[in-house]
Amino acid sequence: MPRPSAEHYDLSETEKRDLIKLIEQGKPLPEKYRFLLFADKREVELVWNGKSREVCTAVLPFQTLEHIDEPRKGSRAGKPVPHLLVA
User: Structural domain boundaries of the chain?
Assistant: First the structure.
C-alpha cells in the first residue's frame, strides 16, 4: 500500500532507475526501500545477513500444567481415597 501522506518519495534519480529496472526484471526489491515505498504497518522483523525465510517447527520440552480443581486422567474418580494416616 503506498504511503498516503507523501507527495513524493525521497529517492535519487539513480535509485529510481534501479528500482524501475528491478521491477521490470521481476526481481525482489532491496530491503532498504521497504519503509521508503510502503506505509508503516507497525510490524517489526529482524533482518540479518544470511537469514533464511524457511519456516520450521521444533518440539520443545515444555512442562505441562496440572489444575488442582480438575481430576487427573486415569485417577480414582468416584472411588474412596485410601487413608494414609492410621489412627
Answer: 1-61
